[in-house]
Structure formats: C-alpha cells, structure tokens
Amino acid sequence: MQQLRRQPNHDALKAVSYKLFQVISDELGVNTAYVTQRSPTAMDVISSFNKDHYIIPEGYSVDYDGTYCRLILQSDHETMHTHNLGKFKLTKNLDVTEELDVKGFLGVTLRDFHGNIFGTLCVMDPEEKNFTDKDINFLKSMAEVLSYIIHLDSTVADIELISVPIIPIKKGLAILSLQGNVNEQRSSKIMEETLHYAADKGIHSFVIDLSQLALLENRFPDLLKNLVSGLNVMGVQVMMTGLPPRLVQMQDAREQLSQLKTDYVTDIESALNKLGYQLQK
After folding, report:
1. How far from 173 is each of 167, 196, 199, 281, CA to CA, in Å?
2. Where are the domains of the chain?
3. Does residue 92 contact residue 70 with C-beta atoms inside 8 Å?
4. N or C: which end of the chain has fewer CB within 10 A?
5. Bridge partner residues of 81 (DSSP)
6. CA 198, 203, 205 angle in degrees (round to 5)?
7. In this predicted model, what pLDDT tens digit does every residue of 43-74 receive, in sequence order?
8. CATH domain 163-274 topology
9. Whole-number Å distance between alpha carbons of 103 and 81
C-alpha cells in the first residue's frame, strides 16, 4: 500500500517546517509532526519530525483513499482530530491505523498562497490526546505560515523556468549553462532566447555546459538536438562540456550525441582553450 517516492523539491518548505515541528511538538505535546502533499493518487510526506518514537518517515506515501488526509480535506472545517484513531469510527478500520499503531491525531488543511489545496499539516502521538479548540487554531496558524513558504518555493521555480543563463565571454563567444530540469515549456524558452541571442550578438561559438543538467525520466533531452541543429544552421560552432555520466550511460543518448555536429570536452576551460582562448588570473 505505501512506498517511498521521490518528492519534488520544496527546499524552503522543508527548511522552515523542520524548525516549526519542534515548536509544534512542544506546544501540543505530541511525538510526531509532518507535512504532506496531495498527488493525483496519494498523499506524500514532504517533511517530518519524530521526537521519541519513529512513526512517520520523510518520503512515506499512502494511497489517497486510505489516508487520514482525505478525511481532513473533505471536512467542512478542513480539520480532523481524535483522541484515539483505533476507536474513532472514521479511522478505526483503515489499514494505516493498524500499521502505524498510534492514537492521538490532529490534522489541518494546508493551502498555497492562492488558496489552492497543497496537502495537510498533521500531528500524532502514540498516546491518547484530547485536542482543544486552542490546539486546532494553533496548528492552523502554523499552516498559514507554511502557505507563504510554499509560495516562495513556487516563485523560485518560476524564476528558474524563465531564466536562460547565457554568459558572454568575448565578442562572438558565449556560454549557455543548462541547469536543473528542462521540461517542454522551459525548453521552448531556452531554444528561443539562445537562437535570438546568437543572431543579435553575432555569436560564432557557443559552449553549452551540461554539468548541472537534471534528466527527466532518464530521457535524452530533445532540446540538445534541436538547439545544436538550430545553431549549426546559423553557422555557429557548438561545443559541449560537463556531460552527466547518467546521460552518457544511456544507449539512446549516446547514439543521439554521436549524431550531433558538436565537439565534446571535459570542462569549460578546455572548451575555451580549444577555441583559442586562455583563462588568465
């Protein structure tokens, strides 16, 4: 039923929630606090804190229909709590209740800055807990803090999406550093801006650095083929550096790389040397 899944990056959310979990644990007298994100079919634990008993690990995932989170999100009050999960009529027959073997539980809906459901903020304890209205309001206030952090992560992702890191070196020479995930939308942005930059600046040599490239689903990025072909048509010499080992190990990637009209070197300095430029201190 449950499995470990690779989570999306929520660096700011993780950093802040780790700091809040200790405060939440002390205030509510609970062992465990965690944040989940709603995926199409499951609830995935983004970050977690376990004081004395290791109950919920980060990366834990449960099918949506069998989660406490579903009860929280479907509640008119956007919250669900019970002093004993094993006795509460809505939770006592869930598989996860028997597996976790905990009693006290309180969870509230976690929304993003725009009010869309992101997931939940929950606490639980091996012992019975009677949560008061004050406790519920406290946890909701913590969820409101985290909603701003979710927005921060989204803003950072948007900045990365629109950013095309082209570094001018000398007249006619520039470096394009491909960093992070390159999805379809970002590929179009990179393709358009790089070709326009090459035309506007009279670029005759482009060094494309792949050392920070992340591969999506272990597929060869179509962007590389299209970008090199486009630059070649414009008469631009292309060199690639920092090929990720995972990319080179893929047979399909090796075949496509061998077909590109480009030179491959180990690093940017080697590429510049090959083009006749020397780095000086």
Report:
1. 9, 14, 12, 19
2. 11-160, 163-274
3. no
4. C
5. 106
6. 115
7. 999 999 999 999 999 888 989 999 999 999 99
8. Transcription Regulator spoIIAA (3.30.750)
9. 10
Structure tokens at 56: 């919920």
The CA-based angle 137-140-145, given to 5 degrees, is 130
Nearest to 179 by CA among 213, 206, 211: 213
Q: State pLDDT tens for residues 242-267.
A: 888 877 787 877 888 888 889 888 88
Task: Report the amino acid identity of residue 124.
Answer: M
The rounded distance, in Å, linking the Cα atoms of 17 and 143 is: 10
Could you tell me which CATH class the domain 11-160 is placed in? Answer: alpha beta
Give CA angle at 14 (47, 217), nearest 5°. Answer: 80
The two structure tokens encoding residue 89 = 């009529």
Q: What's the pLDDT at 8? A: 45
* Tokens encoding 137: 């309001």
**pTM score, whole prediction:** 0.57
Alpha carbon distances (Å) from 41 to 1, 63, 234: 12, 6, 46
Position of tokens 């920070």? 212
Q: Cα(184)–Cα(188) distance, rounded to whole angstroms? A: 6
